[in-house]
Amino acid sequence: MKPTKLSVALAREAYEVRRQEAHGWLRGTTAGRTVARTIRGIADIEIADRAMTLAAQEFTSVLPLIVAVGTIGNLDAVSETFADQVGIDPGSLTSVTRTTADAIESSPPTFAAFGVIGILMVLVSGTSFARALGRVYGKVWDVPVLTLRGWWRWVAVLLAVAAALGLLGRVRLVNSVEWVGPPLAIVGEALVWFGLWMAVPYLLTAGRLAGRVLWATGALTSAGLTLVGMAGVIYLPRAIASAQGKFGELGVVFTGITWMFVQSAVVVAATVVVKAAALDEGVLGRLLRGPVPEQLAVVPPETPPDAPPDPPTADVHDLPRADRTG
C-alpha cells in the first residue's frame, strides 16, 4: 500500500515525539506519551469553546432544517429522535406552520413552493455547523480547511446529520420487541453513529485522512455518543421536567443546548484521542498511520542554534603566493 502524505507526516511527527519526549514520569513510556499528547491536544483545541460553538451551530442549523422538512413531510420520526437525543421536540415548533398550512389548504402548490424555498434557505445558512466542524478537523489534523469551492461538502454533512437522525428514529422502533429489542436498538444506534462520524471527517477534510483513521474516529465517536445516549434516557426526562417547571420553554431550550454541548465535546475529544493515538510510536500508531518506509519517517537532526559555524573555505586566489604552489 502506497503511503499517503498525511501518513508520512504523522510518522515523522511520531519520530520527533519519540526523540524529544522520552523524559519525565508520564512520558517515559509509549502509553504515557499518548496520554500526555491527548491531554495537551484537548487543551490546545480548547474543547469547551469548540463544543459550545458546535452546540450553538447545531441548534441554529440542524434544528431549523428538521422543522423545514416537517412543513412538507412527516416530521414525527425525526422529531421524536431529536427529542430523545437532546430533549427538544421540533414538532412543538411547527404548530404555527401546520395551522397556517391548514388555513391555506385550498392552495397546496403555493405552500409546497414555500416549503422548498424555505429548505433551500436553511441549507444555505445552515452550513455554519459543518464549517465549524471542519475547522475542528483542520486544527486537529493540521489539514487545509475547505474553501467556498467545496460548498457541496458542507451541505452533504448537514444532510447526513439530518438523515442519521431519521435512521435513529427507525432504529428506536426496535425497542418495542420483547427481550432483544433494547440491545438491538443500542447496536443499531451505534452503527448509525459509526457511519455518520466516519463520513463526516472524510467530507470535511476532502478525503485527506486515511481509511483506518476514519474507521477509528467513527468507532470512538460512536461509542461515546452511544454511551451519552444511554445516559440521556435516564437523565434528560428528569432534567427537562425540572427545567420546564422552573423556567418554562426557556428551560427546555437551555437543557437541550447543554446536552448538545456534551455530545459536541464527545465528537471533539474523540478526534483528539485518535490523533494522539496516531502519533503513537508503537503498534497502535503504526496501525493507524499505515505502512510508511522507515527512511521517510526519519528526520535529519537540526544543527543546534549555539553550535559554532563551519570555518569558511578559502579560495585559492586568496592564499599567499608561496602557498598556491603547495
Automatic annotation (TrEMBL):
- Membrane-spanning parts: 111-130, 151-171, 183-204, 213-236, 256-279
- What are the start and end residues of every segment in region (Disordered)? 295-326
Top-rank taxon of the source lineage equals Bacteria
Q: Does the keyword Transmembrane apply?
A: yes
- Compositional bias of kind Pro residues: 301-312
- Tell me the keywords, alphabetical order: Membrane, Transmembrane, Transmembrane helix
Q: Where is the composition biased (Basic and acidic residues)?
A: 315-326
Q: What is this protein called?
A: YihY/virulence factor BrkB family protein
